[in-house]
Specification:
The chain is of the alpha/beta class. It has 13 helices and 7 strands. It has helices at 3-11, 16-38, 53-62, 76-82, 86-93, 127-141, 159-170, 190-193, 218-233, 264-269, 273-283, 289-312, 318-322, and strands spanning 68-70, 147-152, 175-181, 184-185, 188-189, 210-214, 239-244. It is globular. It binds thiamine diphosphate and magnesium ion.
Length: 331
């Protein structure tokens, strides 16, 4: 895939049907990861994104490809929304040479500068100072670009969150802090680890505007991010956005999430972002149930072909690990 094809994948998200289709792609892609992990085809660990898809689409729609996004180890969905191809993302997750960074990073280190995705990492809260730094570079260089940090509710208890928000507020950096409050940090429910129910309240400490967004609604998320991006671009400084959402999967790999109260997942499934958007589009006469079913089959077929293709492709070799690494000043 060339850079222009990735940008095209991003650009088509102006169409509401394409937004729905991309959410479905993310959902079915993530559903397959669990099985691939069980088959030993995914090395290290992996964290899936089912339930949070609307946030990824909102970020992709509200930002330009020249803006910077820095996210977490739970970022397959955001990478796909931003325009990375399924081959590039699955290739990376499965350690193949066709992966986004040649298969040496894996699930937690997706990155692609052509669509603005800065290197992701497993350091909880790490996206926050990195995005603030990207915003600082835009400010210093006078470039019309903003940065977004994506992180979880648990990350808001980390020092980097407080340091990053404080400095971004003092320096009025063009950055948007997007907290995906999915109710859990690893195996702990938020009420057991976090003193406030609404993470957005923490913005008060840094005299920063904040909003709570319905993370299950593409429109609410997109509009909220667009408002914050507009503020960032016009010199108004940073915003903290809290997207209320829920992760359907456990924390990682084979975690079945058995620590969750009975019925909690079912309640959230009633407001599934893909179902909600489908109903909204049907009510607006933009979509039909028949077309939705045809598209579901088509996405499943494409994911099957993708898995076959990537499984048959060459694995990253040992020299690839040393590419782009400078040792003692020598490449
Ligand atoms: C600095 C740091 N501390 C602890 C961990 C271990 N850890 C990995 S994920 C996680 C929970 C993070 O939860 P949250 O920020 O809500 O993100 P989510 O996984 O829900 O998307 C923790 C504590 C880590 N990776 N990095
Ligand atoms: Mg969380």
């Amino acid at each position: 895939m060339t850079m222009s094809q990735q940008l095209e994948r991003r650009a088509i998200l102006v169409d509401p049907i394409a937004r729905w289709d991309r959410m479905l792609e993310i959902r079915f892609f993530e559903d397959r990861i669990k099985g691939l992990f069980a088959e030993g085809l995914v090395h290290g660990t992996t964290h899936t994104y089912q339930g949070q898809e609307a946030i990824a689409i909102g970020i992709a729609v509200a930002l330009r490809p020249t803006d910077n996004v820095c996210c977490t180890y739970r970022s397959h969905g955001i990478a796909l929304a931003l325009g990375m191809t399924t081959d590039s993302v699955l290739g990376e997750i499965m350690g193949r040479a066709i992966g986004a960074i040649g298969g040496v990073g894996g699930s937690m280190h997706l990155s692609d500068s052509s669509i603005g995705l800065l290197p992701t990492s497993a350091i909880v809260g790490g996206s926050i100072p990195i995005a603030a730094g990207a915003a600082l570079s835009a400010q210093v260089l006078g470039e019309d670009r903003c940065a977004v940090a994506v992180f979880g509710d648990g990350a808001s208890n980390i020092g980097a969150f407080h340091e990053g928000l404080n400095l971004a507020a003092v320096w009025k950096l063009p950055v948007v802090f997007i907290c995906e409050n999915n109710v859990y940090g690893e195996y702990s429910r938020i009420n057991l680890t976090t003193a406030v129910e609404d993470i957005s309240r923490r913005a008060d400490s840094y005299a920063m505007p904040a909003e709570i967004l319905d993370g299950q609604s593409i429109d609410m998320v997109t509009q909220g991010i667009a408002r914050a991006v507009e503020r960032a671009r016009s010199g108004g400084g940073p915003t903290l956005l809290e997207c209320k959402t829920y992760r359907y999967s456990g924390h990682s790999r084979a975690d079945a999430g058995l620590y969750r109260p009975a019925g909690e997942l079912d309640e959230w499934l009633k407001r599934d972002p893909i179902d909600l958007y489908e109903r909204q589009l049907i009510e607006a006469n933009l979509f039909t149930e028949d077309r939705a079913q045809t598209m579901r089959n088509e996405v499943l077929r494409k994911i099957d072909q993708l898995v076959e293709r990537v499984t048959a492709s060459p694995v990253a070799d040992v020299p690839a690990m040393f590419k782009n690494i400078s040792i003692g000043g020598r490449k």
